[in-house]
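Researcher: Let's try something more involved. This one mixes different molecule types, so please make sure each is placed in the same coordinate frame as the others.
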Amino acid sequence: MQNIIEITNLSKEFKVLNRHEGLKGSIRDLFSRDYRIVHAVENISMNIEQGEIVGYLGPNGAGKSTTIKMMTGVLEPTSGEITVNGNIPYKERSKNAQEIGVVFGQRSQLWWALPLIESFKILKDIYRISNQDYESIMKLYGSLVDIEPLLHKPVRQMSLGQRTLSDILAAFLHNPKVVFLDEPTIGLDVSMKSRIRTLIHALNKEKNTTVILTTHDMGDVDALCRRIVIIDKGKMLYDNDIEHLKGFFGSYRTLKISPEGDIKKQTSVLERELKNFGVSVSNDEEWISILVNEENANVIEVLNSIQKNHKIGDMKLEEISTEEVIRKIYEEGVE
Amino acid sequence: MKLKKYLTLTRAGIIESLQFRIATAVMVAGNLLYLIVVYYLWKAIYASAGTDIVNGMTFTDTMIYLVLATALFNFMEMYTVWEMGRNIQTGKIVLDLLKPMPYRSYLFWSFSGTFVTNFLFTFLPTFIVVGIVAGGQIPLGINLLYFVISVVMAIIINYSIDFIVGTICLFTESIWGINIMKQVIVLLLSGATIPIAFFPETLKTIVYYLPFQSIYNAPLSILLDGSPTAENLLTTLGVQLLWCIITIVLSKIFWKASLRQITVNGG
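Model: All components are placed in one shared frame. Result:
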């Protein structure tokens, strides 16, 4: 397989003015040369193959958008190299633009006042899509989503879900090699989320388009990505298959019990009692969740120990979800 | 065909601006109000001057000039600075930068549709009305052709200046003050609010060395001069051409340098 994106030792630093408080401080800032360097991205390397869907994850402010902006050519790296489809993005932005598509969940590239079909026609001309290619992609769209009612609706009258769907279709229109999706499912309802996921999956399959997906919704990740890359504070924490992720912290399982009596009180009691096992205890309305690392402690032993002092109304055992692993990585980092 | 990808933006602009019929109507009404004010203001000026001709212009000359200047303003002003500023503030500029064409061209051609509709719906009617009311005072001949050439160059100069000012927004991230300042300077020094003939001599000289008079004064003086000497014509168009080149080059260089600055330091 051929690498479509190659990133080697990529770093990005920003010079940020140290701001001072208050009116006096603000005036002083006007003349200040007091800068500090922020390392938005530090020494990231990865190769992405044609046709992959890669989940690019990280907490807010981790440097995801900065990396995406460098890959699209809007930002110039401080050091390191990127090639996208053989182009150096920031040097050949217009040329690179022809080969990529972008969707930023919060903004739309569509023409606000015009019906969707007009936006498509404009994009067809801008990207110089041949009539034949245009017709075949429209046919494909027609088979994937119920596009007819959308086509003649002005974009400003669309719901957020319809708009996002349209934006994704617009990003794939010129058959780009890579599509960057920045939080495409943000703010959408459950059914729309699932429609969008199905669409992305189908387009990736059909066109063998590489998709770089940033999201905070682990549902997106589970549904779409085989490979995930996690960064935090500009540094790369993880780059591997999603299957490896679950075994990443050792084998974790969640023991859920529903005790009798006040759940909050019980939780804090259990937290104290189970200290030796090295587990973390949390609760919701119904269940007390006990996250057990099976390398340190056996679930059965933990259960035994609980049973000695508590009456358990109900219990269940769960494999750790992607969401919990990611949360652990964000909160505790990687050793 | 390469031009097609630009012309499609013109087409989109036309369709887009036709969606806002009420906005167009309000604009026409607003202008009418402005012109009434202008009419009475200058009537008072001429009345107090006591003579029929002030600075070589009769009252009718002045009115024709100012009405056409307003009409010209309405179709040339594309609020580039607003648009750029808004795009920078909302971050939409990132999406525009990722179109497979230079941002400067992308923005220009996106606006070009509005030119067409504004020309047809505001400038042309005003021109015809003024022509009829003024009873043949506007010469209709070969000067119309020169006028069109001159207007095209005026549009380019105006856009380039706007683009330079808009680029400044990349740094300041505020639009309002800068835009208002630009508008006042351009409208005053270009002769759009007061004919340049009325300026004091020193200011007149200064203004002739600035690019602004090429935006409104140049095309209007070509249009209103029925029998221009070849020398006059060539100087006016030549100066415009010169400013075209200078402002295009400047705006391109400034944009490129600023964008580099932004892409290096982030924005």
